[in-house]
Amino acid sequence: MDLGPHAGFIWASYGLCLLTVLGLIAWVRIDKAQQEKALKDLAARGIARARSAGEGKADS
Amino acid sequence: MAIWDYANPTRFLKLVQVVLPWLIGLCVITFAAGLYMSFFVAPEDYQQGDTVRIMYIHVPAAWLSMMCYSIMALSSLGTLVWKHPLADVSAKSAAPIGAAFTFMALVTGSLWGKPMWGTYWVWDARLTSVLVLFIMYLGLMTLWRTMEDPIKAGKAAAVLTLVGALNLPIIKFSVDWWNTLHQPASVIRMDGPTIHPDILWPLLVMALGFTLLFFVLHLMAMRNEILRRRVRALRLRAASAAQPGTAAATAQPAE
Fold first, then answer.
1. Nearest Cα to B231, choosing from A49, A6, A50?
2. For the CA atoms of chain A, what is the radius of gyration?
3. How far apart are CA B102 and CA B181, in angstroms?
4. B183 in Cβ contact with B175 (< 8 Å)
C-alpha cells in the first residue's frame, strides 16, 4: 500500500492509537484479574459477602 | 425494569455479563469495516493527499475525549444530586479512558499537523483547550488516588469534574470564538457536513467503532471498580472483626 510521502506520519498515528487501545485493554483485564484474585483470597480466609449470591435485593 | 433498578451493583454486573460479549463483537466488526473503508475505499483528499487518513482516527478520538468528559459530568451530577450508587463508579472508571482518547487526539493531531501545517504544535485556542482537558483528566485520576475513602473522593472529584465541564463549550466553540489555525467544524454543523460522502462515511463508521470501544472499556472498568470496592469493604470488615472496638467499616454504596 503506497501512502505517499507522509506515510511515516500515517503509520505512526495508527500505531500509536493501536498501542494506546492495547494498553487500555491490558489495564482493564489485569485490574479484573487482580480484583478477582483478591476476592478469592479473602473467600479462602473465610471472609466473604453475607449474600454472595445476592442478587436482586439492595446490596450494600 | 427502570434504570434505577441498575443502581444495584449486583444487578448491574449481571447486565454487563450479558451485554459485553455483544458489544465487543459489534465493536470488532465496526472497526474492521471502518479500517477497511479508511485505507481501501476512501480516496485521497485533493489537498491533504493520503494524510487525510489520519483524520479517521483523530476526529473520532477528539469526539470521544469530549463525550467521555460529558459522561463524567453527568455521572458527577448523579453523585451530587441523586446520590446514585454507581455514579461515582462511572465517573472514576471513565477518566483513564477519556485521558487515553484525549492523548490519541493530541498525538494524531500533532502528527497530522507536521506535514500539513509545518509544525507539530501551536498554542491556538483549540489545541490548548484540548491540552487543558487532558490535564483535567490526569488531575481527576490523581485526586481519586489520593483519597482513601471512595465516597469522599467521589464527591470531591464530582465538584472538580463539574467545574472542568466549563472547558467543553470552550473546546467546541474555540474555533468560532477565536482566530485559530485549527479548522472550524466540518461535520457537526447547522447547515450539514461539508465533507464529501466518500470521506464522511469512513469517518462516521470509525466514530461508531470508537464509541463502541468506549462503552466496552467503560463497562469493564466499572465492573472492576465495583469489585475493588467489594474487596475494600471485605478487608475493612475483616480488620474491624479482628480488632473489636475500632470503628466499624463503612459500607460503600457500590459494593
1. A49
2. 22
3. 19
4. yes
* Contact with chain B for residue A1, Cβ under 8 A: yes
| DSSP code per residue over B168-194 | HHHHHHHHHHS--SSPPPSSS-TT---
Task: State the Cα angle at B167 between A25 and B103, rounded to 5°.
Answer: 30
* Of B8, B39, B115, Cβ closest to residue A9: B115
Closest CA of chain B from A8, distance in Å: 9
Tell me whether A16 touches chain B (CB under 8 Å): yes
pLDDT digits (tens, 9 = 90+) for B72-111: 999 999 999 988 889 999 999 999 999 999 999 999 999 9
Judge contact between B144 and B127, C-beta under 8 A: no
CB contact under 8 A, A17 and B51: no
pLDDT (0 to 100) of residue B2: 60
